[in-house]
Structures are given as structure tokens and as C-alpha cells.
Specification:
single chain; alpha+beta; Double-stranded beta-helix; six-stranded antiparallel beta sheet; 19 strands
């Protein structure tokens, strides 16, 4: 039997998705600040300290909030509770183009590891904490993959990924090398480590990072084709030098000559 709130949902859209969560009376969903899109009358919004999990006492709540702060998230989350009669819905929007991935922790061993900026919302009772990588190489050189979020509980959680999402099931001992930023989430039994990309030419001229993430099965892995860091760097690149590049093109010259 589940201890977290049970919620129904519907994901809408193609590239810019949103998730509509249906709540029975007294059911609650918790979400990151800024993800709210719209809701029906009869749903109450409340700012909560920490992640909305079943932490008891001041120290427990402080520890929960502190873990969120380490992953770059706010100390506070927003809880949406159905205080009306009958079913009500509330909708949360993805922050950038990509896909929303529904994760049923009840069927995935009660724990998932995900990128620190991927969590969108979850049923009340799901704990959103941090997962420090135990291995020295991962800790020193992991970059984006060093501090990851840990989702624990037996309810539904929703994470967001950039671009196209690929789900792979790794067999025992099967290994996958991935750019650290392209990892969205993986199940609790996956072994995670960092490997240096050998060869000075690869490091200097390869155009990629210096390290791979090494994931070893058994378990499931969700991979994104467009990490937010890659998208942001391209936007900065075109924002800073885009105007000069366009002016230097044939089309830019023709436009200037008019």
C-alpha cells in the first residue's frame, strides 16, 4: 500500500509540454517554484519549507531544506491541495523545450537519481534530496553530474528533460558512456562513475567535455538530447556574436546595402 498521496495525471503537448494533475479531495501535489501554469477553483496554494516529505520536527525540516539548497533549488516549494468537493486539476508547465517524464517510484524500488535541475513536481510525501557520489573521481571531476537529486517514496514524480528523451534498460554488467549533462535520471541499482577522456587531442580539440559518465546495469536510464547547459551556451553565443555574424554574411551585406 502506498504511503504517499495517489494522483492521476495527463501530459499534454509535444515539444513544450505541461502535466495536468488530478487531485481527489484532500490530495496534495508539491512543485518547484515557477512551474505552476493554471488550476481549477477549489485548490489551495501554500508555500512550504523543504520538499513536502513527511519530515517531523524543526531539525528534520531544516535538513530537508538544506539538501535542496545544495542542489541549487529554493528552500521553499509550493503545495497544491484540493480543498473542494470532487476531483480538481492543477497544471504545471515545462521550463524549456523537451519532454516531461512520469516516474512511478512505487514500481521502481522507491528511489530514483536525477539531474539537479530536472525535478518538476510530485505527489506529497515524495522526498527530494541530494545524492552525493561516493567515488573520488566522480566527486572531483563530475561537473554537472557531481551533485544529483534523489527522489524517494512510493508516489508519482515528474521530471523534465531537454530535447528528445531516450529510455534504455541496461542488463547486469552492461555499460553505457554518456555526456554528464545528457543524463536525466536512472534507477537505484545503476552504478555511476566518471571516466577521463584519454588523448590530449580528444581533450583539446574534440569539442566535448573532458569526462564521460559511466553507467553500469542493471537498471533503467533516461537520456536527454539537449541539456539546459548546452542550450544556454548556444543562446549566449548567438546573443553575443550573432549580430556580427549575420552582418558579415551575404544576406547581411545585401540588407545593409538597401
Amino acid at each position: 500500500m502506498r504511503s504517499n498521496h495517489e494522483i492521476d495525471y495527463r501530459i499534454q503537448g509535444e515539444e513544450l509540454q505541461c502535466v495536468e494533475v488530478e487531485l481527489d479531495p484532500n490530495e496534495t501535489v508539491v512543485a518547484e517554484a515557477g512551474s505552476f501554469m493554471m488550476m481549477q477553483e477549489g485548490i489551495q496554494m501554500q508555500t512550504i519549507f523543504g520538499d513536502g516529505s513527511n519530515q517531523t520536527g524543526l531539525m528534520g525540516k531544516l535538513f530537508s531544506a538544506g539538501k535542496r539548497l545544495l542542489t541549487g533549488e529554493s528552500l521553499f516549494m509550493t503545495a497544491f491541495t484540493n480543498i473542494g468537493q470532487g476531483k480538481k486539476w492543477v497544471t504545471f508547465a515545462a521550463p524549456y523545450p523537451g519532454k516531461i517524464i512520469p516516474i512511478d517510484l512505487y514500481h521502481l524500488g522507491g528511489k530514483m537519481i536525477c539531474q539537479k535541475d530536472s525535478f518538476l513536481c510530485a505527489a506529497k510525501g515524495v522526498s527530494v534530496g541530494i545524492e552525493f557520489q561516493r567515488k573520488l573521481g566522480t566527486g572531483l571531476f563530475g561537473g554537472e553530474g557531481f551533485i544529483m537529486q534523489k527522489l524517494e517514496g512510493d508516489g508519482m514524480a515528474f521530471v523534465h528533460a531537454g530535447g528528445h528523451v531516450i529510455e534504455k534498460t541496461l542488463q547486469p554488467g552492461e555499460t553505457l558512456k554518456i555526456d554528464t549533462g545528457c543524463i536525466v535520471a536512472f534507477t537505484r541499482d545503476i552504478d555511476y562513475d566518471i571516466q577521463f577522456i584519454g588523448g590530449i587531442r580528444n581533450s583539446l580539440f574534440g569539442g566535448e567535455g573532458f569526462f564521460f559518465a559511466i553507467l553500469k546495469g542493471p537498471g533503467k536510464v533516461w537520456i536527454q538530447s539537449l541539456p539546459i547547459s548546452r542550450l544556454a551556451s548556444k543562446l549566449v553565443e548567438y546573443g553575443v556574436g550573432g549580430a556580427q555574424k549575420e552582418q558579415g554574411s551575404i544576406l547581411g551585406g545585401l540588407l545593409q546595402g538597401q
